[in-house]
Amino acid sequence: MAEVTPNADENPWKKLNVAIQDADTLRQEAVEAHTEHLITEIETLEGPLATTLRAVYDGEGVDYFMEKLDARIKGHDHEIERMCNYHYQGFIDSIRELQQVSGDATKLKGEIQGLNRELKFSCDPLLSKGDELVKYRKIQKNVTLAIESLSLCLPVLEMYGKLQEQMKCKRYYPALKTLEQLEHTYLPRVLNHWFSQTMAEAIPRLRERIKDASMVELKDFLESIRKHSAKIGEVAMRHAAEQNNMDPSIAKKRVKTRRAPPPPNPFTGEVEDVAPSPPTNNSDKEEELSAQDLIDFSPVYRCLHIYSLLGDKEKFESYYRSQRWKQAWLSLQPPPNMHESLDLFKKYFHDIIGFFVVEDHILHTTQGLVTRSHMDELWEKTVEKLSATLRITWVRDY
């Protein structure tokens, strides 16, 4: 039996139909996969959805996408409903427990408020006493600080009062020492107090006052030795004649024992008083007089120490020497009509000798104020002037 041969014209169309069906199937699967991808991206994406939505509307399966999206939403709603039904009973139990806890919390709150009122009532006296204690603690602290401040300030004020008292009594060298202690020892302890600045500003002025006051005393001293120079020279000549037997009337007298003057106090510049032997009569008393008996040298010592302490020793020495040279020049000027009276001659020589006696005393009781070279220079000039004066007087007489 012969086989039936398929129709050659039918096979190509069948294959084409199958290919078309396969292509539709693939296209449908691709659309489904793309739609599923977009829905998944919408569910998981946390950022903006603009790119995803553009991809949806740019494609051809918008209606299909909407159907799938609605189906996915319904699926999620069903899942949510199922989960709610599953946990509903637990939720109800939790609400009941919360209501019970709320009642217990209200009761506990009432008890706590009651305890708080009782505690507050019990602690009110304690709080009041605590406030008083804090108040008195502050007062005690302030009193302690005041005592500490006074313990620092009182010595400063006492030193300042001592300084003013010394200035009032004209004890300038001790006042200067007190001023140094006040500036370097006491004032640094009270720098936080306003009066320390006032005192610190007053210290330079006080130093100048001390310098000026000591200079006034020095000027008085120079004036005094100028007045007593002739008397000092007269006593010195009498002692020299007595010691060298130059005058028979004096040589017969008993030689008196005279003590050298004590040196000045290096801290105060004052010469300590030494009780002299009581003279037997007025003549003996006059013979016992010396430069330190007639003149108080303490002003020059004080002024020297004060200027040395303040760093102006050279200035003081220069001033003293210039003033003494002026006095020496005045002593060398002969009085008018000296050639007519022997007493005027004596007074002239006594004045010159008294000047050198004072300078010799200063030379031996101070260090550097009057030097040997300075004395020699004065003596040479004095001899020249004295020789010239005597020649003029001799020519005038003869």
UniProtKB/TrEMBL annotation:
One of its GO terms (cellular component) is membrane. It comes from the Eukaryota. Signal peptide: none annotated. InterPro entries: EXOC6/Sec15, EXOC6_Sec15_N. Residues 68-237 form the Exocyst complex component EXOC6/Sec15 N-terminal domain. GO terms for biological process: Golgi to plasma membrane transport; intracellular protein transport; vesicle tethering involved in exocytosis. Residues 238-289 are annotated as: Disordered. It comes from Biomphalaria glabrata. This is Exocyst complex component EXOC6/Sec15 N-terminal domain-containing protein.
